Amino acid sequence: MDELLKNIKEFFESGEENLKKARFNASVSDFFKAIVILCDYKIYTDMKIMPKNHSERFSILEKYFQSVYLEVSNLFQIYTKSYNLRMNKEDAIKLRNYAYGLKDSFASKK
């Protein structure tokens, strides 16, 4: 579990640095990875299951964490667009805000 927490911290830091340097595609990717790891952490903490891939993660989220699933699946569309398209500051901020909100939400439910 410590590795997940360290990875979350690293992706938040990298996302912030990339956002400041206007590397919006990298920032979108970093914040989405932080979101995914936060989801994995929550799933593991609550259910003692570690998703192996996006499909398994989304399936678990859809079944047990519906509101998170709906938002993360929408953000996944932005993340996958970053593979081929140029992202903008608004895209990066949207993922950043959700990542921090998710982190706060999960922390408050402990």
Total beta strand runs: 0
What order do the SSEs take from the amino end to the carboxyl end, as H and E? Answer: HHHHH
The CATH architecture assignment turns out to be: Up-down Bundle
User: Which residues form runs of ≥5 with pLDDT under 50?
Assistant: none
- Give the helix tally: 5
CATH level 1 name: Mainly Alpha
The domain tally reads: 1
Please, what is the average pLDDT? Answer: 95
- Structural class, judged by helices and strands? mainly alpha
Major sheet summary line: none
- In helices, the fraction of residues equals over 70%
Form type: globular
**Rg over C-alpha atoms, rounded to the nearest angstrom:** 13 Å
Might you state the CATH topology name? Four Helix Bundle (Hemerythrin (Met), subunit A)
Q: Tell me the strand percentage band.
A: under 5%
Alpha-carbon distance between the termini?
15 Å
What's the CATH H-level superfamily name? Answer: Nucleotidyltransferases  domain 2
